[in-house]
Design a protein that fits this description.
mainly beta, Immunoglobulin-like, 8-stranded antiparallel beta sheet, 5-stranded mixed beta sheet
Amino acid sequence: MVTNGVLGTMKMYCRALGVALAFLFVSCNKGGGVQYFRATMVQETGAKLQLSGSHLYWTANDTISVFDASNSEANYVLDNGAGTSYGSFVFLSGAELGAGPYRALYPASAHSGAAQVTLPECQHSPTGELQRLPLYAVSSNSRLSFYNLCGVLDLCLTAVEQVSLSTVKITTNTTINGVASISGSGRGITLATPSNSCSTTLVVGTPQDISTPKHFYIYLPEGTYSRFDITMTAVGGEVCNMRANRNIAIHRGERTPVTLTDLSFALPVPEGAVKGLFSVGPGTKVFFSQGNLQYQPSSGTWQFAAHQYDYIGTANKYISSTYNGWIDLFGWGTSGYHDAADQYNTNYMPYSSSNTVVNASYNKFGYGPSVNMSSNNLTGGSAGYDWGVNNAISNGGGSAGLWRVLSKDEWVYLLNTRQASALGDSANARYAKAKVAGVMGLIVFPDRYSHPSGVSLPSGVNTPGAAFESNVYTDGQWQQMEAAGAAFLPIAGYRNGTTVEHLNTYGHYWSSSYYSSPQSHRLTFGNATVNPQATGDRCQGRAVRLVQVFGAGVQ
């Protein structure tokens, strides 16, 4: 049995794949160019590693690249012999080859020159089987012997539950992808050592269920690796990380079997995020922050609320540059970023509170980017106005650029469009109003959600007019739902100047999307509505709930 984080004792077996021996008889046309090669492939040559029994064959459309003594190059494609050990290759493209010695590479697409081969950062395979193992041949005459340039890692994987595997990433202590120089004998390679070339990823075109044992094949350069990490990623984004507790030896022309069982997958949740993944557009998934955004003016500190149901409330009226408390209702685009070229953006600090119109034709009260900017939204050239882009969140990774607000279209997709899990009588549960730990708000369910046993099922799912009191959960019950990935947006009201309104009545959350010079889009929900594309004056302070795009900032 293997546990996560430590790759248990791995049974290492080596079985020779076989040296690829091909006897190529050259036929020349009257012009002196090589017209075709006849190739004889002995059993277990590895010229096309299929790992079906012990027989290895050429396959249709196999192409080799051949160089002559003057480094002229031509490609030859298999003309006859697919599915057998005997094949003939006819001229496909390139120069007319002259006299040898000849150097040949398979597949033709792998080479970077007459004595160089490129080992890819990504190895693509429809179902996980090995494709196009790189081979090389060199000879002073027309008789060429192909040799494997790499060895094969044969991973046999089994998960504790049904998992559809999407990618397998190998990370080592040395270079394993990039341009490699081939030795004079044609039986070895030397890679350069750029810092970003110590990994390779197998991309499985058709995700494979590994609830029962499944083999995956990755070719690697020969060597003994003192560090050997395996990162396996499922279709839903769940990850399983393993590390070898011993050196891993890869031998050219041999297979190194490794069996990993009882694998357990989980989402790699970034610091300061809720566990669940939420689709906000086709192909885009995000984590919600653990709570609403908060700011302390006296120290310039940003943080997420400790709980999802926390909000500041009436204390937001004390906003000032020296206030040593916390605020969580902000004018639109008040991240502290300011573009000096935007003369109409005069209120850009988080504590800004002005009811003086700067120029309503451009931007009401000077909040956020104005229409003379490259982007009216909090994106592109104006992305700095986004609180999460501009600022480091102290309990959210501690670096700027990890978080952002959702756009209007993303709020709409999240609440009205995406496909989510069945819950009770709902076949597609996206949200429900509720009262959590005494606080009214909106529960948003992740794409994949399993409701905790013993906790009452939500009613009024996806129903804008449902009452908040129709679902009441204690703090303990909510902790179970939160552990299952649910997000919660509390009714935090809004600030108009230094007056806080709509407490216990409406929740208002900014988006990044421009609407008009005085207004921007926001999510609003109350007793009779859930509107992800409402609008509101930019000068009014509203809640901010940041998200992190899946994969960004995750280590």
